[in-house]
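Bench log. Compound arrived from synthesis this morning; before running ITC I wanted a structural hypothesis for how FE2/S2 (inorganic) cluster sits in the protein. Inputs:
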Amino acid sequence: MSTVHMTVNGSRFTRDVPDATLLVHFLRDHLGLTGTHVGCDTTQCGACTIIMDGLAVKSCTVLAAAADEADVTTIEGLADGDRLHDVQAAFREHHGLQCGFCTPGMIMAAVDMIRRHGGVLDEATVRHELEGNLCRCTGYHNIVKAVLAAAATYRDRDVTAL
Ligand code: FES
Ligand code: FES
């Protein structure tokens, strides 16, 4: 067993978990944050993407014990009460989802992408950066539109607040 301390969405948690517990299962099964999805067992789909210590990571590839003392943001940490985060709002406005299974990972990857690029993105860059996130239904067109629209709203704003 490992004792894991973690700050998730601004709250501090401590849990004793088996050593082999993956971060995604820690979030879903031990903290009840089921917005982070599991879409594969091969580290390919990106449905499990979260932000850890400021960078997007696939939480199915990280042991919970290896994330001890990490600062994690999941999809549940983006909205402010009933007010959607701007990236979430852009996905809704531009119909960037159908079944929605990939959406939490897409949005977390988009948040990371917009932050790293300071809101300056073009279509080719968005498509390239989303290579690690698979959608089985939308053909990506509206997802890319949503990411570009969200990025545009951050061009003149402080992206560190994303
Ligand atoms: Fe993590 Fe698919 S569940 S990449
Ligand atoms: Fe992405 Fe369906 S909306 S898998």
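What the model suggests: The CA atoms of residues 38 and 48 lie 6 Å apart. Strands lie at 2-8, 11-17, 49-52, 55-58, 70-73.
ITC booked for Thursday regardless.
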